[in-house]
Amino acid sequence: MIFLVIAFIVVPIVELAVIIKVGGAIGIGPTVALLLIDSLLGAFLLRHQGRSAWVSFNRAMAESRIPAKEVLDGVLIIFGGALLLTPGFITDILGLALLIPPTRAIVRSFLKWIGISRLHWGPKAAYWGYGRVQKRKGRGPGEEPGAGANGRAKARPQAEDFSWEAPPPAAGPRPGDIEGTAHEVRDDGQALPPGERKPFAG
């Protein structure tokens, strides 16, 4: 929300103030001509750098590697061209910074640093319970964050404690158990009374 307010309200007001200031210093005609030259320069750089980024992207794909740098360069080039095509001196400076390779590399490194700093990786562990799998997340492979009653960190289940064996049977009857007696049934014609035997229809 703050970014949208800055982009659509603050920046246009500042740009208008700068244009009025420059126009009062060098005149209206030179100011308009300078803005047109900036727009033409932005279109030229957008075409040139965009073609270069596309070639680099195809080269990365041909080499079977992830074109992360090339994709980010393409996004920065498009954004820089849009800024240069927008009337204003501040946006022109920002657009040039994104289209020129040395300054674009600085911006790319800064964006990578921001992206890495926003990632939070936490080790995960899973252990098998009775009929279910439980997942846990913590700071380290052997400790839980926080302390127990004795001031020591609580131990987490280790990988050596995992077992694929079935759990021991519970003592005594369980809900759902049915008591009964099994009888063997032989397939020799003697298991059924004579009146219930029927010839097999093959």
Topology:
Elements: H1 2-26, H2 28-62, H3 68-85, H4 89-99, H5 101-117, E1 124-128, E2 133-137
Antiparallel strand pairs: 1-2
Helix pairs in contact: 1-2, 2-3, 2-4, 3-4, 4-5
Short description:
By secondary structure, the protein is mostly helical. It has five helices and two strands; from the N terminus they run H-H-H-H-H-E-E.
How far do the termini sit from each other? 81 Å
- Quote the beta fraction: under 5%
Low-pLDDT segments, ≥5 res: 120-138, 140-144
Largest sheet: 2 strands, antiparallel
Structure description:
It is built from 5 helices and 2 strands; from the N terminus they run αααααββ. The chain is mostly helical and 202 residues long. It has a domain at 11-117. Strand 1 and strand 2 (133-137) form a beta hairpin. The longest helix has 35 residues, at 28-62. The protein is elongated, with a radius of gyration of 37 Å. The termini are far apart.
Structural descriptors:
202 residues, mainly alpha, two-stranded antiparallel sheet, 2 strands, 52% helix
